[in-house]
Amino acid sequence: MSIRGIESEFAPVEPVKGKKSSTPAKASTNAGDKVQVSGEAKTLFQADQSKRIEEIRKRLDSGYYLTPEVTDKIVDGLMNDLLKSA
Length: 86
Known about the structure:
Number of strands: 0
């Protein structure tokens, strides 16, 4: 099976960026450490999430995820994940 590029009127939805760690987080030795997220940062994050959700809904409504090209790409990704964990 060969995978060709997926052509669509939609731009790709970017995944949420986050740092992945292969080791479990260690407990902080300094109980005084804390993180504060500004209200502006929270608002920007929520706006970005709302935009991403709306793009995904549009794709669902248009049948984008039911095309053979997208289905093949999803299946290949799942197979790669399964083979990595085996």
